[in-house]
Design brief:
By secondary structure, the protein is mainly α. About 45% of the residues lie in helices and about 0% in strands. The chain is built from seven helices and no strands. The radius of gyration is 43 Å and the shape is elongated. It starts with 6 loop residues before the first helix and ends in an 8-residue tail after the last helix.
Amino acid sequence: MPDQPHPVSLSHRLAALVRGLRNAVIGRGNQIGLPAPLLHAVSRRLTRMATKFEFLLRTAQTSPLAPPKPSRPGRARPPSPETPRPYRPDPVPRHRAWLLRLVPATATIPNICLPHRAALEQIFADPTMRALIAQTPALHPPLRSLCRMLGLPRPSHLPPPTQSTPTQSTPTPSAKPNTHPRTPRPIRPPKPSPFPTPPSPPTPWDQRQAFRAFFSPLRCDHF
């Protein structure tokens, strides 16, 4: 009966698989003329993924039952006086099997990602890998991301992503009745103006009387 692979060798296998996938994609991308920023972003993502796999699997082998360290509250940093950096979108695609479509196969050259995809399926079928997946929840997100970029169906022993439940909004307390009503303020009389009051405009009756007095003939009753 063949011996089962050691967890440390399994970590090396998985990390070497991701690094080999990175080198193959970068080499093929340079041949077909992919943009340099895109190849740099893909290389950086796969390098971080390989380093994370190697660290997590090695930590799970050395201390599988060690409790997680409590997170320490971070110190509040003062706001930086510098201007914030402009937002730069990630050039790496997000759709399923994007790594296979990034370096498509031709009539003479097959897709270079298919051998690495078959090797990943063999690693998932390993019973040691099944046990590590069950006891190391930190492995689940990068493994799901690797399956997505290669278009590999998620294995049954790899849990699906947990959906964040919406937080229940706390009901706002109803407004309490006002037991002490405010008394209305007294209306203050307007302050007298220091300027004289302008004369009121003449009424139509006053205008008629002035017209008659000016144009009517004089009456001499004493003769």
